[in-house]
Amino acid sequence: MKTIGVLTSGGDSPGMNTALRSIVRTCAHYKIKCVGIVRGYSGLIEDNTKVLNTRSVRGIINEGGTFLYSARCDEFRQATGREKAYKTLRNNNIDGLIVIGGDGSFTGATKLEDEFNFPVIGIPGTIDNDIYGTSHTLGYDTALNTVMDAIDKIRDSAISHDRLFFVEVMGKDAGYIALRSGIAIGAQEILIPEVNTKIKDLTNSLKNSKKSGKTSSIIVVAEGYKPEKNVYQIADEIQEKLPNYQVRVSVLGHIQRGGRPSCFDRVLGTQLGVRAVESLIDGNYGKMVGINNGKITLTELSKAIKGKTKINKDLLRISQIMNT
Ligand code: F6P
Question: What does the DSSP assignment read for 262-310?
């Protein structure tokens, strides 16, 4: 392993820069050349690369986003795109590639491995926490703290005006962000794609909380929770059914992906970066590095993509107890 390439792909997440710094410095430690690929798989197709040294990653441990830029690349889904990408890897004498991203990015990495027998390692970088084989993806903890801070502010307004707020959070098809942040902010209800909460149950829960003297409430809604309606339609329906409530909707959006990585994500990004480089050196390819019970672990990339981590039902139960 003389030269290692690295790219960030898909939605950016806080901690990607920290992981890049770690990869570059670990490469320097082992006297390996490190090549950064700009804008994910698009950069790989266009041969947009730059050699990285320890100074290239100075002062980024605490920066959100990714200094290598990121993209969602359609051309890489085509065989012709992947041929071009492979050429770039060869042109730059890259012996192994580290891909930081989510399941879509990992699918791309497995294609390089399957079609060209190219050594790849994945680092789970996404706020969604929807990757099997790691208890935490890089950026999830920071996003949770961002959501918690934002909803704490919304709560001030909810209390001052006796209002009911529906707050939509990200998470793609998964409810991890909603469930954990919902408990942290004391949500009245948490609506996630993994549980089929009916509007009728929600209405009853709100009626009961009104009866018990509660004057304001927050419902956290995962963006993937769409039984048949989106968050605005759900809010309209509740407003119609419960005219005594003043209902408002807040969609947090991309603020959840930004900001300085938390302490947890900085340490995690640093640990995962070191292990990713060392796994390539050890010839342990086709894996994702992750964290489980405080230990850095390796999972087959194919399993990381296909596997499903079950939602923690006990957190849901706890949330219900808190609502009473
Ligand atoms: O995967 C991260 C994520 O932020 C999801 O939570 C969200 O559904 C999606 O990306 C949004 O993607 P984009 O920024 O491309 O609209």
Answer: PHHHHHHHHHHHHHHHHHHHTT--SEEEEEETTEEEEEEHHHHHH--PP
Q: DSSP H helical segments within 47-102, as ranges?
A: 79-91
Q: Catalytic residue among 103, 128, 130, 265, which?
A: 128
The predicted-structure confidence for 124-174, as pLDDT tens digits, reads as follows 999 999 999 999 999 999 999 999 999 999 999 999 999 999 999 999 999
Residue 247 pairs with which residues in a beta bridge? 164
Q: Where are the alpha helices (DSSP H) in the chain?
A: 16-29, 40-46, 79-91, 103-116, 140-161, 176-185, 199-211, 231-241, 263-281, 301-306, 313-323
Nearest to 93 by CA among 111, 112, 118: 118
Sorted by sequence, the CB contacts under 8 Å of residue 47 that are 6+ apart come out as 87, 88, 91, 92
d(CA 112, CA 125): 19
Q: How far is the CA of 253 from the centre of ligand 1 (A)?
A: 9
pLDDT at 323: 83
Instruction: Tell me the two tokens of residue 145.
Output: 């703290």
Positions in the chain short of pLDDT 70: none
* Known active-site residue 128: yes
Q: Measuring from each residue's beta carbon to the nearest atom of ligand 1, which residues come in under 6 Å?
A: 11, 102, 126-128, 170-172, 223, 257
What was the pLDDT predicted at 41? 98
DSSP summary character for residue 197: -
Tell me how many degrees the CA angle 13-14-18 measures, rounded to the nearest 5. 115
| First-to-final CA distance of the chain | 58
CA atoms of 90 and 77, how far apart (whole Å): 19
- Amino acid identity of 311? I
